[in-house]
Amino acid sequence: MSFDAEKIIEYSNKNPKPASTTFAYGTAGFRTVGDTLGSTVFRCGLLAALRSQSKNGQVIGVMITASHNHERDNGVKLVDPMGEMLQQSWEAYCTDVANAQTSEELVETLSHIAQEERIDLTIKPRVAYARDTRPSGPMLQAALEDGLAALDVEASNFGIVTTPQLHYFVRCLNTQGTAASYGEPTEAGYNAKYGQAFLRLVSGRETPSKLFIDAANGVGAPQVLKLAQAINSPYFDIEVRNSDTQTLGKLNIGCGADHVKSNQRPPAGVSLVPGSRYCSFDGDADRLVYYYGDEHGAFHLLDGDKISTLVATYLRDLVATAGIEDLQVGVVQTAYANGNSTSYIKDTLKLPTVFAKTGVKHLHHEAEKMNIGVYFEANGHGTVLFNPSAVAKLRAVVPETPAQADAVERLWALRDLINESVGDAMSDMLLVETILICKGWTLAQWNEAYTDLPSRLLKVVVNDRTIFKTTNAEQTLTAPHGLQDIVDSLVAKFPRGRSFVRPSGTEDAVRVYAEAATRRDCDQLAYAVAGAVFDKAGGRGERPAEFL
Ligand code: G16
């Protein structure tokens, strides 16, 4: 059995590759200007079919989104059967397929992959797909559907949903009717599963004040309203801001989790009232940050690190109350984690912590190695995983006291509340709300655990970001030659200084992170490093302004 090469060529000729563009599968799939991605999305449809056949016909997901990026960008990524990111060894296949110059070369590349992976091409491939609200979405969806038609895929279109919802649907489809059944693969099923777990955990407690949600003018806006409708309880009293998914040019602009985290200020359309509670999603609702304003007008951010420490503390305490021995809660972070969060996890919580490269796909795999792995990037992207040994230990507990029984029941309910397939702003928000309600905490009380070191994240646009190479969980540059020495000499000038430089895998930019003991030192360090990157590595546009 081989491909119907003629059919693939016919569809491929409808979706030609732009000759001069090279595509790369980055931190979260392919991402670039949406109008240029037709051939890539078409080819991802073909590859998703092969991946499904290689997994014995299990459903593979394809999500068309560029998440936090500008509206003109779009992207595509593949989702593996348990709802996790595509296995990394297949990313190279994605890049090969996307860059085949002609339709004939494309067929050859597909045949090569089928041989290499010993794929049984008689298996019926199955693919589930969805997209976000971007204007290039319908055009890219049509290209994807061409790819699916070219290989006679049994396809399910989930419409316009959040990225984590698509991950959830994929896992549900592949576990239906088994002991690992994850839920109903529908929006209503998603809302019922997470909504019911939330109500199980909070009922009987005091109801919280209203939560204002900045939905980044993205797909999270309609979806969180549906979730609230399903929950239909004063425990989830929300008001959604930045919910305009219809007007062009609004997605992620001046709002959303990336804007709030990077600029450390509230989003457009939200004026902070002391005592009120706020959070932001990003454009496809896989990131979450909280924040509030105090009576002196100061802005306080509760980012992914704060979420991670809140959740890890809560789980650690429940495990202790449940009296489960040898059940370790661990935390996975990236180099962007605030230095004081890492010290807090190690020195105060006394929990093991490890560092992974940027990208939830890297953190997820580290978290899988822990009994209960809490992983969050500082940008608010993350979740919690209970590995099989944790589940077995939980199952084996015979509670001897009501407190123990309650803790065990809460751990089970938390597992139902958490979207283990991927970081999910809506499920994470319900998790944070649960913990705050159970502790009776305000955002200010949550924020008291530790104080962040001042930090700054900058972007530098350069001629070619692929010349940047890193090692040591992306904290040390190995190229361009000599740049790391300059970074080191700058860092040495500032007490508690730390800085690193890495190429973004989702945007055409190089990221510069810096932290130091004071705000002034931190900003001086960040701008000095950004200036060095600009000067030594072909900066484009405006040189990062010196901080005075
Ligand atoms: C994606 C990834 C995240 C990553 C972020 C930025 O987020 O899923 O894990 O932190 O990109 O990556 P980079 O610094 O390489 O650009 P999202 O929310 O855009 O899907």
Task: Note down, in words, how this protein is organized.
The chain is an alpha/beta fold and 548 residues long. It has four domains: 156 residues, Alpha-D-Glucose-1,6-Bisphosphate, subunit A, domain 3 (Alpha-D-Glucose-1,6-Bisphosphate, Chain A, domain 3, 3-Layer(aba) Sandwich), CATH 3.40.120; 116 residues, 3-Layer(aba) Sandwich (Alpha-D-Glucose-1,6-Bisphosphate, Chain A, domain 3), CATH 3.40.120.10; 122 residues, Alpha-D-Glucose-1,6-Bisphosphate, Chain A, domain 3, CATH 3.40.120.10; 82 residues, Alpha-D-phosphohexomutase, C-terminal domain (TATA-Binding Protein), CATH 3.30.310.50. Helices cover 41% and strands 18% of the residues. The strands form five sheets. Strands 1-3-2-4-5 form a five-stranded mixed β-sheet, sandwiched between helices. Strands 7-6-8-9-10 form a five-stranded mixed β-sheet. A hairpin with a 6-residue loop joins β18 and β19. The chain is globular and about 65 Å long. Bound molecules: 1,6-di-O-phosphono-alpha-D-glucopyranose. 1,6-di-O-phosphono-alpha-D-glucopyranose binds next to loops.
